[in-house]
Amino acid sequence: MAATHWLHDDLGYEGWLSAHPQGFVANVHNPPGGTYFRIHLATHDLPDRSKPGSVNPRTGRHYSKVTAEIMADLIAWAGQHLPALTTLGDSNFCKVCAPRGASRA
Q1: How many domains does the chain have?
Q2: How many CB atoms lie within 10 A of CB 25?
């Protein structure tokens, strides 16, 4: 599986985004669990709801990130790590950046 879960590593996550502008990002809880799994394009300027002055605000507070070059790898990661998420619906895809239309298998 080619998905990477970013936890307590904002620098690594931001480096991945810069190196993979055609990729995908999923926002998940920290720690991962439940059914929260929101997919975005890697180029989407995600809102930062964290405390900017904190350590690793994007990957170390209430949320973490999962990245992959293809959406199928994100979905496979969710299947392995989020057993409560049995199906993906409209709420799992960002309505602003529309990653579903950019899917590259």
Answers
A1: 1
A2: 26
Give the CA angle between residues 12, 78, 5 to the nearest 5°: 15
Q: Are 24 and 96 in contact (CB under 8 A)?
A: no
**Beta strand spans in the chain (E):** 4-6, 24-29, 37-41, 63-68
- pLDDT, tens digit (0-9, with 9 covering 90-100), for 9-26: 988 998 999 999 999 999
Domain that holds residue 70: 4-102
Alpha helices (H) along 5-87: 10-19, 71-81
Which residues lie closer than 8 Å to 94 by C-beta, 6 or more apart?
38, 39, 40, 41, 44
Is pTM beyond 0.70 here? yes
